[in-house]
Amino acid sequence: MSEQIPEPPEVAREVFSGDAWSRAEEFARILAGPGVVRGLLGPREVPRIWDRHLLNCAVVAEAVPADVRLVDIGSGAGLPGLVLAIVRPDIQVTLLEPLLRRTTFLQESVDALGLGNVEVLRGRAEEVAGRREFDVACARAVAPLDRLLKWALPLLREGGELLALKGERAAGELADAEAQLRASGVQTAELVSVGHGKVEPPATLIRVVAGRPPGKARQAARGKDRASRAKRTRHQ
What segment(s) does the record annotate as region Disordered (predicted)? Predict the structure, then answer.
């Protein structure tokens, strides 16, 4: 399968600069070979490996802050999490995936690419919530936004960001999730366009900034009230 990989567009060398270039080429070969054989990528996707997959994921890095802990929910073939780890060595990436055959592929890919800023974690988001906390969560083609919010927000610190790669359905999903966004206590939710001049069309993200969930806000308020009463009692 790997011989079917098209020549990368010139812009790929700009996006995958420095050490990232050789890793991007190797990951393209991995996706087109073992990735197809093991069912993580469809054979018809091989001719579009650069524009639809590698570049489309890499430009998400424009929206990722520096030096963060990022979790890729339902990582699958490592899109976009593994690609982000290639182009952004400053971030720590956790590839979260429940299926063993996929985590095996992901770990083999990480080892082959020599990526020291990546861990592969087998599990579901709801199993990890409360045990791990991240600055950024990303996801691509995992679930509609209303369902993705339930998985992602418990993984984020207050002020952390969900970056959901959605494409042309982004505006509709954002509107459909309006009630849940309010109930979840998020700070902001907006559409973000990345990759201008690098991918066509530019990639559309939904960016949600996590707030303090209403339940936790009430708990914090009660805690402050108790602390205040205790302080007044000590001074009486």
Answer: 210-236
Answer yes or no: is 40 a known binding residue: no
- Residue-wise over 61-72: b if at least 16 C-beta within 10 A, else e? bbbbeeebbbbb
CA distance 82 to 138: 11
Task: Report, in this order, helix, strand and coil percent for the chain, each rounded to 5.
Answer: 50, 20, 30
Q: Across the strands, what pairs with 188?
A: 209
What confidence score (pLDDT) does residue 179 get?
Answer: 92
140 is in an annotated binding site: yes
Has 126 been labeled as part of a binding site?
yes
In whole angstroms, what is the distance from residue 27 CA to residue 105 CA?
Answer: 12
CATH architecture of 61-234: 3-Layer(aba) Sandwich (3.40)
pLDDT of residue 6: 86
Establish whether 115 is an annotated binding residue. Answer: no
Per-residue pLDDT reduced to its tens digit, 172-185:
999 999 999 999 99
The tokens describing 169, both together, are 């359905």
The DSSP code for 47 is G
Contact 46, 5 (CB under 8 A): yes
Here the tokens at position 168 are 């042309």
Please report the beta strands in 152-212, taking only residues with DSSP state E, as ranges in sequence order: 156-165, 188-194, 203-209
Average pLDDT value over all residues in the chain? 90
The reported pTM is 0.88
25 known member of a binding site: no
